[in-house]
Amino acid sequence: MSARPTTAELKLTAAQLEAIRGHARRSYPDECCGAIFGRLDGEARVVTDLQKLENSWDPVERRRRFLITPQEYMRVEKEADARGLSLLGFYHSHPDAPPRPSEFDREHAWPWFIYPIIGVNGGEPAELRAWQLRADREGYDEVEIHIDDT
């Protein structure tokens, strides 16, 4: 596994942003989740592909939690390697909640990944913000998101 930057920015296309928004809209009132594939460009993480994943959490709790099983994680990590890409992180939604990491999110995150979170208000996707867990796991740093309109 290659070294990962300690600070980052996330570069998405407008179509990728719309894909995340659509996934969040269709999953509401449950949380959606997905993998982010791409490449490192200095401190920037350039997204080349997104992959919707199943929220494997108990159906009762899916409105405020998401779970990617260890098997699914291994599958997407292997897929990234096979495609010559990096697994950059995982996106998810926060139904009727702000796009900030929860304590539960912090407890289950890894410092080297980027975690975009999209708020969904009454079924309509709202603000997207991205976060990276600090190495000491005590909190997050916000990651700047750049959207390419082309």
CATH class category name: Alpha Beta
- How many domains is the backbone divided into? 1
The residue-averaged pLDDT reads 91
Number of strands: 7
Which bin fits the share of residues in helices?
Answer: 10-25%
Can you walk through the features of this model?
It is a single chain. This protein has 150 residues and is α/β, with parallel strands linked by helices. It has one domain (9-148): 3-Layer(aba) Sandwich (Cytidine Deaminase, domain 2). It has helices at residues 14-27, 70-82, 103-108, and strands at residues 9-13, 33-41, 44-53, 86-95, 114-121, 124-133, 140-148. It has a 7-stranded mixed barrel with strand order 1-3-2-4-5-6-7. Helix 3 links the parallel strand 4 (86-95) and strand 5 (114-121). The chain is globular, with a radius of gyration of 14 Å.
Describe this structure in a few short sentences.
With 150 residues, this protein is α/β, with parallel strands linked by helices. The protein has a single domain (9-148), classed as Cytidine Deaminase, domain 2 (3-Layer(aba) Sandwich), CATH 3.40.140. The chain is built from 3 helices and 7 strands; from the N terminus they run βαββαβαβββ.
How is this fold's topology laid out?
Layout lengths: L8 E5 H14 L5 E9 L2 E10 L16 H13 L3 E10 L7 H6 L5 E8 L2 E10 L6 E9 L2
Parallel strand pairs: 1-3, 1-7, 4-5
Antiparallel strand pairs: 2-3, 2-4, 5-6, 6-7
What descriptive keywords fit this protein?
150 residues, alpha/beta, Cytidine Deaminase, domain 2, 7-stranded mixed beta barrel, 3 helices, 22% helix, 41% strand, globular, disordered N terminus
